[in-house]
Design a protein that fits this description.
The complex is a heterodimer of chains A (112) and B (114). By secondary structure, chain A is mostly beta strands. Chain A has no helices and eleven strands. Chain B is 0% helix and 51% strand. Chain B contains no helices and eleven strands. In chain B, strands 2, 4, 5, 6, 9, 10 and 11 form a seven-stranded mixed β-sheet that branches. In chain B, strands 1-3-8-7 form a four-stranded antiparallel β-sheet, with no helix packed on it. In chain B, strand 4 (31-38) and strand 5 form a beta hairpin. Chain B is globular, with a radius of gyration of 13 Å. Chain B starts with a strand and ends with a strand. The chains are: A mainly beta (112), B mainly beta (114).
Chain lengths: 112, 114
């Protein structure tokens, strides 16, 4: 089955700096890569996703890049703010599957 | 507004007891999932369903069961609770059978097995 590895497990940045979280996947058939944000004590919520026919996608301060050849994708957050502090999960799913395999999460702390 | 709910939100039980966690969604989604979240392990899939009367095992299904008798509900049963099943449980749902489907998560149930 699919295996998703996520790095780093913890990340601390100063407010205003950029943050990058990287994930690798094992199944070359995977074609959908969502990112979820989970604030402390809350449920995970989708913040951005990318399909395999696209190399990059942006939404304001967040962007996701995908390298299908290397089987890795990354989340980029620019101009970080304290409210960006949360656990971020990457995931991968493949055609015909309604389910995703999740990475183990990255705890991002943005210091004011 | 459509939503996904879980009950109870907190549960304390004893080893060996049967426990059922409820999950209810009003989006009319075909797909429903149960995850457990433990520190350092992210979200691990327990069971999932693609529609009424369909159930499938996830990566950590031992000791858990589900049944899907209607579109809205997917209750999770711990047949004989063990301390290793102390965790936060999230239910989720998504539309359709394709892979490009955002999952919507419930608020979670914190289960403690003493």
């Amino acid at each position: 089955g699919e295996n998703v590895e996520q790095h780093p497990s913890t990340l601390s940045v100063q407010e205003g700096d950029s943050a990058v979280i990287k994930c690798t996947y094992s199944d070359s058939a995977s074609n959908y890569f969502p990112w979820y944000k989970q604030e402390l004590g809350k449920r995970p919520q989708l913040i951005i996703d990318i399909r395999s026919n696209v190399g990059e996608k942006k939404d304001q301060r967040i962007a996701v890049t995908l390298n299908k050849t290397a089987k890795h994708f990354s989340l980029h957050i620019t101009e970080t703010q304290p409210e960006d502090s949360a656990v971020y999960f990457c995931a991968a799913s493949w055609p015909g599957a309604g389910k995703s395999t999740f990475g183990d999460g990255t705890t991002l702390t943005v210091k004011p | 507004d459509a939503e996904i709910t879980q009950s109870p939100r907190h549960k304390i039980t004893e080893t060996g007891r049967q426990v059922t966690l409820a999950c209810h969604q009003t989006w009319n989604h075909n797909n429903m999932f149960w995850y457990r979240q433990d520190l350092g392990h992210g979200l691990r899939l327990i069971h999932y369903s693609y529609g009424v009367h369909d159930t499938n095992k996830g990566e950590v299904s031992d000791g858990y069961s589900v049944s899907r008798s209607n579109t809205e509900d997917l209750p999770l049963t711990l047949e004989s609770a063990a301390s290793s099943q102390t965790s936060v449980y999230f239910c989720a749902s998504s539309a359709g059978t394709g892979s490009y489907n955002e999952q919507f998560f419930g608020p979670g149930t914190r289960l403690t097995v003493l």
